C-alpha cells in the first residue's frame, strides 16, 4: 500500500556537491552534525541571524553555537493562542525579476492594532533589504501578488448592495432573496502603495453574477501592462475573458464565452485553449478544447459535479506544458491505479504521456509558478511527504539543502525568479518557515517563520506507527507524543480524519499539537477508504461506513494499547465531519474501548445524508449510493451504521459541536443525535456555533477546541505533574530531632 522512503544521503556524509558543478562551489555542513529536528533553524529566528552561507566548518561552528544557546533558552508547551494565532508571514511571493518580495502580515498576539499589512522588500542588497509596510486598514484582503515588478494586485472582499431587485442565496436547504452579497474585487497599486486602481470596475460588470471578480486566468508574462480575467457582462451574462490594463483599469474582451461557461485556461502564449461549461441542466461539467491556432471548440469530456469535486476526475487542468497545444492534467494511470500528472494534447484530444506517476500513492498537489503557470514540483506522500522536481539543476540544489536542514524537513521551492528560490521549510515540529536561496552563491537567507510565537515552544514529536488490520492488511497511522507524561502512560485521543476520502499528513498539525501540549497522545489512523493510496485502497472503504473502516480504526487503537504506549483506561475518540461520524460509531461498536466521544460537524443519520443529497444535488447521488449506500437496497446496513438510530447503545459521555451555517453536513444531523441521546437518557453536551463546516473563522475554531480540551480533562485527565522540589534554601542538613513528649502537668502559657 505504501512504502517507507530511503534517505538519498549516507549517514556521516560530510558534504554534498551537485553533479556537474565545480568542487567546493556548493558545500553543506554535515547532516549528522546538525540535528534533524532543526535546532539551528529555530536558533536562526531566535538569534536574529539574517544570512547563512552554506560553507562547511563556518556553518558547523555557528550551528553548534546557536544550538547550544537554543538549548539554554526556556521553552514551554504551546498554548491554544500560540497554535491558532494569525500568520506573521502569509502568501510570500517574489516579483517576476526576483528583486522584490511581498507578503501579508497579520498582527501578532501582544501587538497593538488589528490591521493587516502588505510588506514589500527590495532585495537588491540581501544583507540589508529595504522594507516597506503598507497598512491595509479597513480592507478584508484575501490574497496579494505581483502583476509585474512595479504593480501589485490585491484581492479585497466587501459587502455590496444589490441595486436591481434581489439576489438568490441558498442556505440551510432553503432559497433566500437577499439585497446584499459578498463580493471580491482586485485593486492594482504601485509597490509603494500609491496609484490604486480597481479592476473590472466598469458598470457592465456590476451584476450579482460577478460575486468573485478576483479570478486571474493568465498573468501574461510577456505583456507587463495586462492580465487576463474572466467576468460576466451585465447585458449578456456570458463568462467572457478580458484583457485588463493593470495601470489604468481599461478592459478589452479577448474571448467570448457562454452563459454556462465556468472557467478559462490558456497556453504559454496566452491563447485560450480550454474551458469548462456546465451542461444544460447544470448536473455535469463539459470540458471543451481547441488547438492553439484553431477557432472551433470541441467537447472532449463530461463528468458529474461530484467527480469534478474530487481530485481523481479525468482531465483536470493543472498547469501549462512546454508545447503550445498541450496542458498538464491530473489523470489516473491505468497501469498503477494511482493519480498522476500527464500531458494532454488538444490536437489529439487525448493523453500523450505521463510527467510523473508513483506506482503506490496518488500525487497530492502540483505547485505551479504564478507567472509562467508551469509546474515547479509535484508533491506526493506515502508515510511522509515528498516532492519530485523535473528541473535537474534545481533538484541538485534541493538535495544539498535537504542535507543542511535535516532529513525530516520538507523543503518546497515555492518560486524561482531572478536567480532566487523562495523556500518553504516545514516539519511536524515546525510550521512553515520561509527562506530565500541564491542559486549562484549557494546561500540561504531567512525571511522568517509563519508563526513566530511557536519558536520558543516545545512542540511534540510525531512518529509513523505501522500496524496490521484483523484481515492482515498493512496499515499505518501517526502518533503525536506528548512532551511530558510525568512518568505515567498518557491518555489517548483517537483522531480519525474526515472524508473519508481524505488523509492525514506527516506535517505540522495544530490540533494534534494542542492535544499533545495538554498531555495526550494522539493517534491518527490511515484507514481503508482514505485518499492518496490509489484507487483500490479508496474504494475499499465504499459501503464500509461503520464497518471495515471502523474496524481499521479499532485495530490501530488496540495495537497502540497492546504496545503499552498509552493508558488503556483513558481513551477518547474525536473527529470532524466523517471523523465525527466515526467518533459516534466508536463507542457503539466497541463498548469497552472508549471513555468519551467528541463529534464535530459529524454525520449521525446515513438515511438523512443520502436523501438530503437527492433533494439538493442529483449529481452527487451516484457517488453517495456507492460510497455510503442506497436508502432502499441497503436500508438494513444504513440503519445499523447510523449512530442516531443506535443512541441507546452509547455508554460514554458525548460532546457534539456543529456550525449553524454548515453547508456540507447539515446542522440537523447533530440536532438529531442530541435528541436521540437525550431520549435514551445519555450524557450529552451540544455546543453550537455560528460557523460553517470547515471552521474558517480562526476564533470560532479556537473556541471550539477550548470546549474540546475542557471535556477531555473532565473525562480522561492527563497525569498530574509531580510536586516541585523544595528550594535549596529550605533544605536542612541537620539531623532530625525526636519529639519529646510534654508532661501532662506542665502548663504552657504564652509570654
TrEMBL record:
Pfam families listed in its UniProt record: Peptidase_S9
Gene3D superfamilies: alpha/beta hydrolase
Protein name (Swiss-Prot/TrEMBL): S9 family peptidase
InterPro entries: AB_hydrolase_fold, Peptidase_S9_cat
Residue ranges of domain Peptidase S9 prolyl oligopeptidase catalytic in the record: 508-695
Chain spans, region Disordered: 1-22, 715-751
Positions in coiled-coil regions: none
An individual GO BP term: proteolysis
Organism encoding this protein: Marinicauda algicola
Keyword Hydrolase: yes
Pro residues compositional bias, start-end: 718-727
Keywords: Hydrolase
UniProt cross-references to SUPFAM superfamilies, sorted A to Z: alpha/beta-Hydrolases, DPP6 N-terminal domain-like
Origin: domain of life: Bacteria
Any GO molecular function: serine-type endopeptidase activity
